[in-house]
Request: fold
Amino acid sequence: MSVRTVITGMGVATPHGLDITDFWAATRVGKSAIGPVTRFDVSGYPARLGGEIRGFTAAEHLPGRLVPQTDRVTQLALVAADRAFKDARLDPHDVPADDMGVVTAVTAGGAAFVQDEMRKLFSRGSRHVSAYQSFAWFNAVNSGQISIRHGLRGPTGVLVSEQAGGLDALAQARRRLRKGSALMAAGGFDAPIHPLGWAAELAGGRLSTSGDPERAYLPFDAAARGHVPGEGGALLIVEREDAARARGARAPYAEIAGHAATLDPRPGSGRPPGLRRAIELALADAAADARDVDVVFADSAATARLDREEADALTAVFGPYGVPVTAPKTMIGRLQAGGSAVDVATAVLSIREGLIPPSIHVRPSPDHRLDLVTGQARTASVHTALVLARGAGGFNSALVVRALD
Amino acid sequence: MATQEFTVQDLKRILREGAGAAEAVDLDGDILDRDFEELGYESLALLETGGRIEREFGIELDDEIFADHRTPRTLVEAVNAQLKAAV
Reply:
């Protein structure tokens, strides 16, 4: 049997806070962090609600040299990384630098940095563009900056599969551990609340244009009308179980037991969507049966077609009302690549506490035949959690998180 | 027209604005003869600093200026020599 991949540290940067304790305290009681966008003047746009990380000042958390060279998304990733390594109680000397790597997912890189520098380019000329534009924008920058800051000199990479990215990054980290790395930092982040990011999300056609924070993002509800975007993500420290024991790591939270990713067929092909296959393959990878799954963290796209597809996949695998399903994203919005990484952190905390956090504001449509946990959290013995994510462009990803016996 | 002068105060301000300051370094301390690298500024930080000096003072610096002038003292002297020559 191959060596298990265990989670030994977690760091989050979400609209529910930068501290994992604050994050869970808000999540477990179903607190909403969705409100009017304040980061830019959103009055001229059809979508005006967001899940913002309020009161975040990079200079309070990061070295002065890093602040001018980083986009907000990188600043959030670096802050989460600091906290994840601290949570893992890792002394950099515990593990050789070449045995540690990082893989992160992102959708739009440092888009706000790009926007600001392009504004200078077009209004004042090329001499006004920051030298840091050379790297601050690109998709690999979060992995690169985390690698430099924490001295991770092993495998480093970046994945772009929109909302599915956070799960795919963790799966890639697991593959790297199986190939011999001792420790990987993995997760996903996005920070799209700025005019350029907003324009891109609007062009995707899935944003809710409701102005009511309690009615805007309602996955699996007959009134579903798109989602509310949020910002942030999560970074997890994952280790080979033997390596974690060798360095005397803290008791791991849980293991990443299985994963699969599939791609939807071309629209109009008549072939079925790939989510069900991703779920079945992930369960097989975890040597788990549908009956072993205690909770599903749903992708929760909140459009009629995508909700239908997800509900169909879940009822096909688990049967109607066959497993508790939840959508904590209803509290903070969809964080693109960050959203699924945050859901993994939430799944881990659910396992630890034996509590399924609620989906808020949703009245599930009986057509979907889902046992959606709504209103308030549900006490449950959670041993195995399935996290689902679907990225715009046809990406499906399923990841199994399991308690360590 | 009087010659514009580039002071070490200007340099410190531009460094802070464009590239930030390392926690371990006190830019208000005795930095005149310390190497930029020792002060925590790598080549990209210096490129950004050079660009800001050029914009603010309306001059064009040689691409090699930071290779030839590794400390605040000699850089300030070199920029001022160029400002004087440009009058």
In short: Chain A has two domains: 5-246, 259-402.
